[in-house]
Amino acid sequence: MSASTTMPAIAVYPGRADTVHLTELPRPTPGPGEALVRVRRVGVCGTDQEIIAALFGSPPTGSDELVLGHEVLGVVEATGPRTDGVREGDLVVATVRRPDGCPACLAGQPDMCVWQGFTERGIVGAHGYMVERFVEDVRHLVVLPPALESVGVLLEPLTVVEKALRQADLIQRRLASWAPKTALILGAGPIGLLGALLLRSRGIDVVVVARRPAPNPAAAIVEGCGGRYASLRETPLAELAADLPPFDLVFEATGVAQLAFEAMGVLGSNGVLVLLSNTGGDEVAPVPVARLNLGFVQGNKVLVGSVNAAHEDFTAGVADLGRFEELWPGLTARLITHRLNGFADVARIAGGIDEGIKAVIEFAQ
Ligand code: BGC
User: Ligand 1 mean position to 77 CA, how many Å?
Assistant: First the structure.
């Protein structure tokens, strides 16, 4: 019997809601500089849900389907010629964004793309990783130590906050001394929680606020790394902040645009507020413009948006995942609250995860 020339993948028809389905892709072979990766596990995130709801996403040129998935962990099965640094058997994560020819991309910063003509695997114009195997240029792969097998699928979402912190640190070179002591994180989804682990690992006092009252799995993770969790249902943000020292750093990761503006009101002097939510829609809300403006001027505050991540954020993230394990053994893996069974569970991808935090799809090896 000859080996099959195709392999299964999970796709949508972008622009049409609720079209998650199984499809087939040609089985790829690695060329020079490329590796063939067998997919082990893929995370499902808010962006995937937006693509499924037809609010976001586009297929590769010439196709009406988009294979989903941008949070991948896999194992290198074969390599083409000239693939230094990546070997058969390596545990790898692939980055998401591929450059266009804009000045930022040409300078090696596709995460800062100016022309917005980039592609993103599993999101914009390029197939993602919910597939049996994929081929990738080894420059877009990051090798992880085997000890990080259980948490490696969280590397890509971690890089979002790695970049956020790197941006804040770069911006704060304007200060003769920048040693953040206090941080507020809005949102207790995977991004907010990974942000909490990252900032706590740097010794920063962290308060995470979200809607759900404690106890809940997210609050337990915040407390597990020595942070504080508070429910906005119980205490409004301004009231909560009034009882705490000023925040040097704020990460907004709720997906609720209005909270980005509320966060502006609780940022401390010389502080940085990093906005991380991709908010769809065209919601309008009243904003206390004079008070917020004055606070920013008088307090030398910075508001910055941040998307995607650079290769250096992935390598920093590998080191930090290891550090999280040393500091709080087993805690990071508790973000994974739902495990779906590969291609057989395709119907469950589009579902919510109730009180859970992160769903991953396990692919049989
Ligand atoms: C991904 C980023 C991506 C962004 C916008 C996020 O879910 O983590 O890599 O740039 O979506 O497409």
Answer: 26
